Amino acid sequence: MSFSELGLSAEILSAVAAQGYSEPTPIQSQAIPAVLSGSDVMATAQTGTGKTAAFTLPLLQKLGENRGSGRPRVLVLTPTRELAGQVVDSIATYGGHMRLRTTAVYGGMPIGKQISTLKRGVDVLVATPGRLIDHLERGTVDLSQVETVVLDEADRMLDMGFIQPIERILASLRGRRQTLLFSATFNGPIRKLAERFLHEPKRIELAHEGSATDNIEQAAYLVDGHRKRALLTHLMSEEEWGQVLVFTRTKRGADKLSEQLERDGIRSTAIHGDKTQGARSKALAAFKRSSVQALVATDVAARGLDIDRLPHVVNFDMPDNADDYVHRIGRTGRAGARGRAVSLVSGEERRHLSTIERGVKARIDTTTHRAFQPTSTGQARKGSDRSNGRGSGRGGPRRQRSRS
Ligand code: AMP
Question: Model-level pTM?
Answer without folding.
Answer: 0.61
